[in-house]
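INTERNAL AUDIT FORM
Audit reference: QA-55
Scope: verify that the stored structure record matches its stored sequence.
Auditor: D.O.
Record contents follow.
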Amino acid sequence: MTAPGSASAAADGLTIGRGALHQLHTILLRDAPDAALSILQETGFAAGEGVYRAFCAWLPGETGVARPDELDAGRLNDVLSAFFQHAGWGAVSVAPLGNAALVVDSSDWAEADPGSADAPMCFFSSGMLADFLGRLSGEPVSVMEVECRSKNDARCRFLSASPDTLNAVYEQMTQGTGYEQALGAE
């Protein structure tokens, strides 16, 4: 999602644009609706490594920090927002939610197609962010989108937490509990 020849494009050698990502959604939902979610999530997860490598290549020149593990936690929100905006995904804000989750919010996320769906649709991003944030934290994480501009929410909101935590949140959500309540954030 960056210009060819930029530092982040050079790190992985290949980018795709919003149009291609939206077309992938359209084709999968039309031709393979039962498999679209898993295909997009798994493809996004596979893309996470390249996004993380692009972040590692971008980080020193933009922040003066050589490696992600040297980044002060207090700068994480600003640095991730600058990186994702630079890479074409959109600006993000990152913050804790409750005691067990991180939330990633964006009012201009690239994968969203406003007004096109009745449910969150950024499946590719959920997979990509799971791999990216897992590499960043050094621990396996899961990511679930709970608000989406595709369904006319004001933002895309991704929850990131341990797989066990997100499984428990999902179970509670299927029984009518809101995600904030399930995380003890209300």
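Auditor finding: record pair retrieved intact. The radius of gyration is 16 Å.
Action required: none
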